Amino acid sequence: MQRIALALYSLLAWLAQPLLTRKLLRRARAEPGYALALQERFGRYPDAPPARASGPRVWLHAVSLGETRAAAILLGPLRQALPGMQLLLTHGTATGRAEGVRLLGAGDLQAWLPWDTPGAVQGFLRHFRPDVGVLMETEVWPNLVAGCRRQGVPLALANARLNEKSLRGARRLAWLARPAYASLAAVWAQEQRDARGLASLGAPVDGVFGNLKFDAEPDAPLLARGRAWRAGSARPVVLLASTREGEEALWLENIKPNRPLALDGKAPTAINSVDVQWLLVPRHPQRFDAVAALCAGAGLSVSRRSTWDAEPEPADVWIGDSMGEMALYYGLADVALLGGSFAPLGGQNLIEAIACGCPLLLGPHTFNFAEAAEGAVQAGAALRAADMGDALAQAHALLRESAARERLLAQGSAFIARHRGAARRTAQALARLSDGGSGGNAR
What residues does CATH 3.40.50.11720 cover in the chain? Predict the structure, then answer.
């Protein structure tokens, strides 16, 4: 039955290749990176197989921007654990691949992850011949896992997470998902909740190591520049960080001039462009123009990061239209609202904001980072809001109460410190797996 299911899935994936090509070319109109090395998506490589380094060839798959940044945190301890290793870094999105270029050292390799057909996977494995593979967080593909098993490439899932929605979907497709998860060499989960869900799918959970993102160090020069700009701002800065589609419209609806917002039973206060400096940073670069146009259409003046020279330009709304500068934006903000959590999208990386020392408000939808979000709220390292209006009211209250902001920062610093160590644990487990070991030990 499993063979029949995989054969049917493989046929459908093969038939979908022309659709994939068209989709990539359409996306390339907005993000040219999607047109790069298109043949790699199908396991075809014009050059000879790359020369090997002295150490093992370690393949890390980081599908997009967030996973690539998690991989960056792992790489330092991993290079220490495996001296002379050669990195093969693969991606699925243009933003992930662009960010990944920064992680490459001499002799390292970068490519697209192939489309999940037997032929493309076989072409990828024959060309690169990795000694060990690591999928970051969620990317488990049936033919990829099966191909690695046939070729004798131990494949692990690191920093693994599985929210309830994904778990339900995997259970509906258990005939395809269970063999894929069960064929992994090791799984290292972020939290116990993730471990339980993954184990229920047959995954070999060998450790609960925590979230790699707790080990990230904010970019100090960017953070310092943001704080210097904040000191020069005439108004307090409220950041909407990594917003997703629909959230900017929710924000606009709630900041209409003269719309009252109750503050803990106190006299209602209107939050509008007069008393707050707004800073919006969309999650995806293809939305920068649309968000700027939306704000301008609402009658707000707009200034974009890409036009700034020595300092931000005066405007009702600043648009953070750059990549890799979240530390600057968190340094610039007095309070931040976490994007992706006010629409039912699961939230974004809340750990980075807390590590940067920015008071943080979470919306109701944080299922992608459920335990981290709940832990942060329980520890007093972040605040929870019922909706966008509630978040804006709480933000305004925090702007007036410096003692409350200071408590959040102190508790946030302690929260981050308690959860460090995942990178070291993961690197050590991966080194054992590369040497033929059985993975890691549970924390």
Answer: 2-210+421-434
